[in-house]
Amino acid sequence: MSGAGDREAVFPTRQSLGVMKAKLKGAETGHSLLKRKSEALTKRFREITRRIDEAKRKMGRVMQIASLSLAEVTYAVGGNIGYQIQESAKSARFRIRARQENVSGVLLPAFEAYLTEGNNDFAMTGLGKGGQQVQRCRETYARAVEALVELASLQTAFVILDEVIKVVNRRVNAIEHVIIPRTENTIKYINSELDELDREEFYRLKKVASKKQRDTAATDAEVKSKKDRLAALEEETGSNGPADLLAAEEDEDVIF
Amino acid sequence: MASQADYRDRQFLAVIGDEDSVTGLLLAGIGHVTPPPDNQKNFLVVDAKTDTAAIEAAFDRFTSERKDIGIVLINQHVADRIRNRIDTYTQAFPAVLEIPSKDHPYDPEKDSVLRRVRRLFGE
């Protein structure tokens, strides 16, 4: 990847380099956590789909048995009881309740069937004849509905898990393919800019050093030439060398 | 996604189906009529004469209007008549469940959820 790739708009300073490095580390941790979550959910999801498949098949069988027992009722009662039943239905005896189950932080609802006590809308159904068949039919259908409720809770879990897995996978992919590369790019960019600055600084220092050296050399040369000139001048004026104090001519007497 | 309060009070099942299925399920005790004044039933009997609009209206009432229904049971051949509605229905609550009827054997290929299962696993 080139330095011109996608990166965040930051100033290339050491501080933002530190921030970016922390961010990269965070993104990597988050990625691995989310990945694990997604795997756990997918495992659960596969289990649920398998159970749905089984439950659907079971439902087919159970419903077949139930409709057979209804046919028995129709035969025994000797007429269609559908209308009577539809009219006498008042209050549900068979109700459901929702529970929650926690799978890796996802709340999955599960339905639970229960029977309310003490209301029976169909006390009169089959009173004349076929009461036994009606009773049996009710039990069969109650079992069928229980199977249906179980299937419904599986299906609800399926729908919710499907949604959640999609979201989690989207996050995993976003971190893997967008955030991490971009942060890495930014780090690369900051590093290259900092190197560039380092090189510039180094070059500048070298330049300054060489200038200084040149200046010193020039001053040295000047001093040296001055000294030389002075020496030459001295040589010219007094070639007798330094005056000997003792050998000097007599001083005049000092009178106080 | 469903909020917590959304499914706490969902305690009934609803049925849309032919007369035999509805009768059987009512016998099991799922039938419920809300107290007057509105007298809403939680079941709908569909026969050849029922028009599709009525089925759709009932489906909408059970799935979106009423907040006390947790599961909607619908006969598969009835579901076929409003297949488009069923396939585009994606909410978790209430759960829509296609059930076989006496005259129409169950076909897993048509079930919207099973089709999704198949698609996900590439079968």
From TrEMBL, chain A:
Gene3D superfamilies: 1.10.287.3240. It holds the Pfam family ATP-synt_D. InterPro entries: V_ATPase_D. Residues 211-256 are annotated as: Disordered. Keywords: Ion transport, Transport. Residues 247-256 have a biased composition (Acidic residues). The keyword Cytoplasm does not apply. Residues 212-232 have a biased composition (Basic and acidic residues). The keyword Transport applies. Transmembrane segments: none annotated. PANTHER family: V-TYPE ATP SYNTHASE SUBUNIT D. Belongs to the V-ATPase D subunit family. This is Vacuolar ATP synthase subunit D. It comes from Remersonia thermophila.
UniProtKB/TrEMBL annotation, chain B:
Keywords: Hydrogen ion transport, Ion transport, Transport. InterPro entries: ATPase_V1-cplx_f_g_su, ATPase_V1-cplx_fsu_euk, ATPase_V1_fsu_sf. Transmembrane segments: none annotated. It is a peripheral membrane protein. Its main location: membrane. It is found in: Vacuole membrane. Belongs to the V-ATPase F subunit family. Subunit of the V1 complex of vacuolar(H+)-ATPase (V-ATPase), a multisubunit enzyme composed of a peripheral complex (V1) that hydrolyzes ATP and a membrane integral complex (V0) that translocates protons. V-ATPase is responsible for acidifying and maintaining the pH of intracellular compartments. V-ATPase is a heteromultimeric enzyme made up of two complexes: the ATP-hydrolytic V1 complex and the proton translocation V0 complex. V-ATPase is a heteromultimeric enzyme composed of a peripheral catalytic V1 complex (components A to H) attached to an integral membrane V0 proton pore complex (components: a, c, c', c'', d, e, f and VOA1). This is V-type proton ATPase subunit F. It comes from Remersonia thermophila.
